[in-house]
Amino acid sequence: MSNAKQISVFVDNKPNQLTGIMALLKKSGVNIRALSLADTTDFGILRMVVNDTDKAAEALKNASYAVTVTEIIAITIPDAPGQLSRVLDILGADSVNLEYLYAFTGASDKSVSFVIRVDDNASASEALTKGGIIQLTEQDIAEM
């Protein structure tokens, strides 16, 4: 199974909250590879994949942000019609529940990468490997 990690940050839904987080990451020398922000009326959840998960999490925690680090699956597939559908078919065939996903730019303009959060990383990873889907590691992401 690949080992990729995502940082989730609880953010108040108020002006300049995201600005503070971005400034902190900049000061820490952390580069964001993927980002998703989901909000409600009162708060949001910022999800990020970065080039140095430990450094980012430590900087955010030291600044009193509520932070969690979770294992995710990061994949890269050809940038062509039907490729994401193929991935979803592979996961569905093994009854893996997809909780959410978001895309990010890969290392090539001929591919696209996705963060996938599922209910069972081990089963998903095994199914994707059998299906020929390339999974990215923390090191792969850091080197992008």
Write out key terms for the chains shown.
5 helices, 7-stranded antiparallel beta sheet, VC0802-like, alpha+beta, 144 residues, 2 domains
Q: Tell me the strand percentage band.
A: 35-45%
CATH topology assignment of the largest domain: VC0802-like
How many domains in all? 2
Q: Note the gap between the termini.
A: 20 Å
The largest sheet is: 7 strands, antiparallel
User: Which CATH class of the largest domain applies here?
Assistant: Alpha Beta
Query: Counting H and I runs of at least 4 residues, what is the number of helices?
Result: 5
Write the layout of secondary structure elements.
Elements lengths: L3 E9 L4 H12 L3 E8 L3 E8 L2 H10 L4 E12 L4 H11 L4 E8 L5 E8 L2 H10 L3 E3 L1 H5 L2
Antiparallel strand pairs: 1-3, 1-4, 2-3, 4-6, 4-7, 5-6
Helix pairs in contact: 1-2
Describe the protein:
The protein starts with a strand and ends with a helix. The chain has two domains: 4-70, VC0802-like, CATH 3.30.2130; 71-142, 2-Layer Sandwich (VC0802-like). The longest helix has 12 residues, at 17-28. The chain has helices at residues 17-28, 53-62, 83-93, 121-130, 138-142; strands spanning 4-12, 32-39, 43-50, 67-78, 98-105, 111-118, 134-136. It has 144 residues and is α+β, with helices and mostly antiparallel strands. 33% of the residues lie in helices and 39% in strands. Strands 1, 2, 3, 4, 5, 6 and 7 form a seven-stranded antiparallel sheet that branches.
